[in-house]
# Entry
Amino acid sequence: MKQLSTQEMVRATMSRDAGYDGAFFVCVRTTMIYCLPSCKAKKPMLKNIVFIPTRAQALQMGFRGCKRCRAADFPKIAPKWLDAVVEQMKSKTSQHLSETALTDAAGVDISTIRRYFKSQFGTTPTAFHRKMRLQHARQLIERGVNYLEAAFESGFESSSGFRDAFKKEFGSTPGRNHDV
Ligand SMILES: [Zn+2]
# Structure
C-alpha cells in the first residue's frame, strides 16, 4: 500500500473522509481510543493524535476502538470474541499466554483464533501477544524503568532474548545511550 503522508492523513481526518477508513487509524493518546478517519465525534487536538497504519499495531499499543465510529468493527468482519481475546492479552503483558487462556476468554477453539489472526493480522496469536509485550516494555522504559526490569515485567526470561526482540521490533536497543 502507498505510504500516506502525515499531511494527507491530517486532511483526511479533519475532513472526515470515509475513503480513508481502514487505510490508517486515528489514535488519541489522551483517551487511548482509536478511530476511523471518518469518525463524526469532535476531533481531538492534533498534538494528541498519532496515526497508526494497522489495527494490529493500534491494539498492541493498547488503544481501544471508538464506540462512536465503531472502529473495532470496521470493516464489519471482526468476530465478537476478538475483544475478549485482546483484553485477555492486555491483562497478561507480564507473562506468556497459554492457548487455553485465549480459548477460555473467546469461547471458540484455538484454530478459529489462529485462522483469524493469520488472515487479519498476518501473524499468530502468540507473536501478536509478544509484540504487545514489547510495546508494554517500551512504555515502561520510556517511563524510566530499567530495561532489565522492563524485560521481566514483559515476560521475557532472558535479557539477551529481550534485547534482540526489542531491537528487531523497534530498530534500536532498549538501553539508554545504546549501552546494552
Ligand atoms: Zn471514533
The longest strand covers residues 25-28. The helical segments are 6-14, 55-60, 82-90, 99-106, 110-121, 125-142, 147-153, 159-170. The chain has two domains: 6-73, 79-180. The mean pLDDT is 90.
